[in-house]
Each structure stands twice: as C-alpha cells, then as structure tokens.
Amino acid sequence: MSLPNLVGTVVIGLAMSAIFFLLSVGLSLSYGLMRIVSLDQFLYYSIGAYMTYVVASGTGNFWAGLLVGVVTSCALAWTVEKSLFRRIYEKGVMFSMITSYGVLLVGIGAIKYIWGLVPRPVMTPIAGHVSLLGTTLPTYRFVVIGLAVAFYFALRLFLERTIVGKAIRAGIEDVDKTEGLGIDVYKIFTLVFLITAGLSALAGGIHAPLIMVDPHMGLKIIATAFMIVIIGGLGSIKGTVVSSLLIGQVMAFGFTIWAPAAEMAPFVIMLLVFLIRPTGLYGSQYLRR
Questions:
Q1: Residue pair 41/197 in contact by the 8 Å Cβ criterion
Q2: What's the N-to-C CA distance of the chain in angstroms?
Q3: Residue 204 placed within a domain
Q4: Owning domain of residue 74
Q5: What is the C-alpha to C-alpha distance for residues 278 and 15, in angstroms, rounded to an integer?
Q6: CA–CA separation, 15 vs 142, rounded Å?
Q7: What residues form DSSP beta bridges with 137?
Q8: How many domains does the chain divide into?
Q9: Does any domain span residue 249?
Q10: Segment 173-219, tens digit of pLDDT
Q11: Is residue 68 part of a domain?
C-alpha cells in the first residue's frame, strides 16, 4: 500500500471511529450507571440524521439542522425516560432491552410513515479538500474527527470536574451507596439519558453527509456499536475510545484490502478480547449495582 493510500485509509478510519465513539459512549454510560440496554439510542441517531436532512434541505444551514436534531432527540428521550424507563429501572436487563427495542421499532415505523423508504442525501456543510502527505481528503472528515475529540474532552471534564459528574461516576461504581449519600439517582438517570440521546443524535447528524439517510440506518449500526462497548468494557469511556479507534481502523483497512474482512475482523477482535479479558479492555471486574 502506497503512503497516500495509507494516510487516506487512516483518516477515513479516524472519521469512522469518531462517529462510533459518539454513538457507543451512550450505550456504555447507560449500562454502567442504570444497568439498562438502551437500544432506543439508535432511534435518536436516526432522528438526528433526519432532522439534519430536513432543516439543511429547507434552509441550507447544516449546523442549524444538527442543532434541531439534537434538541428534538433530547425532547423525545426525556419523554421516553419519564414514561417508560422510570418504570423498569428496577427490573432485569433483558426487560430494558426488549422495551427499548420496541421503542426503536415504533420510531422506525414513524420515520417510514413521515419520510418514506427512499434514502435521502444530506449536504456537506464544508466544501474543499486538505492535502496531507501526498493524498487529498475532504475537509469535512477532519471536522468530524475534531468534533468527536472536543466532545470527548468536554465529557471527561464534566465527569471529573463537576459535582454532578462525580455523582455519575460514583453511581457507575455503586448506585446503592450513591443513593445512600442522599443523591437523587433518578435525576442523575434522567440527565445521563439526555446526554446519551444528544450524543447519539449528534453522531447521526454528522454521519448523514457521509452516507445516505434511511429509516434502517439505526438498525444497521447496532452490531458495531455493541462490539465497541463490549470490547472497551461496559461503563468505561476510556475503553469506548480505544475500542472505537481500533474498530474504525480495522474496518477502514478491511474495506481497502478485502471488503469481507471489514465485517468479519471486528468479531474476531471481540472474541480475542473475551479470551484475554472477559470484562473488556477497561471494564471493571467489580462493577455492580
């Protein structure tokens, strides 16, 4: 592989990793804190993409569409959390998985009813290309990478430097002890639910110009997102970052070298990690509720 092709593949892999991280970190936080499998996050990913498409097509302003997508997804997530998840937090993980999958399917049905089955293109907000080590790459891919890096550090600062963030970290380690300190864990649950929905919608919105927006886009990415969370370790943001980078590069090089490898290699990596560390790369062996 020539140097320009190598550089191009690495950058494409980093852009894929950025989107994977924004989508997967919500799954990791939801399970780490609330012990739920929140499949409805993939609905917010789709809604973020569709609202970006609608507003960008109508106004020509991609960033306004991205903002509307995030706000709309957070409003829907607040409604779902208050009306459904508040009733099932104390039940088993399988119960939350089935419930959230039902929400996802209903949402997909609504998307089909409103926008139909035809895939929709979304405008690229930033034109132009960047020359790097002999290869020319779209500027927008670097913007996607930069956004993910910015949100990663913002999330870290929030969790490590704020009182609410520290309460969330404490809850991930032990919800019962956190509640014993007088903290209303259900308010924390709602906040985390909104954060994860917003990140999922952001992932969908910034991914939209790189793909065709369609009703099943959330279903198509479920397996990859779960692999990333499992490989990194449930509840670990650092693990989600590392596994997102790993899977993004593996898939990018897989598509370049031999397309079937892009689908097969992530599963092989997941099995290898399981053999070495059953809890994932950075998963805590003492994680409990």
A1: yes
A2: 48
A3: yes
A4: 18-216
A5: 28
A6: 7
A7: 130
A8: 1
A9: no
A10: 666 677 666 777 778 888 888 999 999 999 999 999 999 999 999 99
A11: yes
